[in-house]
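Troubleshooting log. The previous structure file for this entry was overwritten by mistake, so regenerating from the original sequence record. Sequence copied from the archived sheet and checked twice against the printout by T.R.
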Amino acid sequence: MATKIPATSLKPKDKVVPCNETVACASGTTCCKTQEGTWACCPLPKAVCCEDHFHCCPEDTVCNLAAGTCDDPADLSVSVPWMAKEPTFPIASSNQKCDETTSCPDGSTCCRLSPGKWGCCPLPQAVCCKDGDHCCPNGYTCNEKKTSCYKASHEIPWFTKQEARVLKGSEVLFGDEDVKCDSTTSCASGSTCCKLPTGQWGCCPLVKAVCCEDHEHCCPQGYTCDLEFGTCVKASGLHSVLLTRLQTHTDTRPEEEVLCDASTRCSKTQSCCRLSDSTWACCPYKEAVCCEDMKHCCPVGYRCDPEVQGCTKVSTSMWWENAL
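Regenerated output below.
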């Protein structure tokens, strides 16, 4: 039988298993390479990635490519069906790390604030002004006396930094300060929700920003999008800045999940099983059979057999594992 893994609480602070710096798998799963060299998720903890780059097996088993099973090397007569991988999802922290404990949203720049804390300038590769509160676009110089950014004869208002977000391990703590786009998506604090060409939500790394009609760019508050020249124009016409490209939203929850109740979930290739009367766990089989001991589960088409401590189907049996 397969081992259950604890269900995941529906919170934006969910832990993930990073595959690299840009994609991750859900907690309790394993990163495995695909045939294309990209990453996929095996819905098992500490899984064995099979050489066909399509399937995976539980820990301490061997992939049997010919039979399409996972075999116990200690007893080759014992096997379980192997698992299909599922897609990864973008990792929340494609963020800019300021240090080991703080980060800024992607497309922004880490700058020191006056008290010595980190702040986020809502511009990529920005120039951090010495006053500790403001910043300018790349290639511009801060003019503290005029509170502006200048480049040759071109002068624009400078930007105000936003406070950086706290990191916990490999995750960013998102909470009530996030900007909610709808019931399932959000943008980081200090940014604005704007629609993308696909109809999904994107994040403009500016406070109370203006969303441009092309659904790809945005401008600071008080500016107008000039799509022809790719700039943001102040109402007076004297100031212009480059358009800011939208980013995808920061919600990293997989799109398809199995909801156990209102507050817990399992991966789409798993099944919800009770770990106790008040706690859910995830069985790493789709449409699984949950055993009465609340510790084990079996694949669909099998039944729990306490006498053999395994899953029985006709005359074939499989071993089970202890619950985590």
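DSSP finds no helices and 48 strands in the chain. Archived copy saved in two places this time.
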